[in-house]
Amino acid sequence: NELGDIYLVGRLPLKAVTEQEIDRILGAVLQYADSSFNPLLELGFSSAIRREWAWRVSRGESLANLKAFEHLI
After folding, report:
1. Residue 62: which region, alpha, beta or left (left: phi > 0; alpha: psi -120 to 50)?
2. Is the pLDDT reported for residue 1 higher than 80?
3. Residue 34 lies in a domain
4. How far apart (Å, rounded) are the C-alpha atoms in residues 46 and 57?
């Protein structure tokens, strides 16, 4: 939308809505969201990640939760 939000919309026939199908669909959504999360952060926040990295290094702070982005440094 105009704010940059992403909405996922899907439709199924009522007879296709089973516990197994809901589990399959939600599992697929989770897998795709998780697998694209870091690349999306890199696209939108690479300069902020680099600044945060430098700030933590300058203060001796942990870099543990930034290790996935070390290749940006």
Report:
1. beta
2. no
3. yes
4. 17
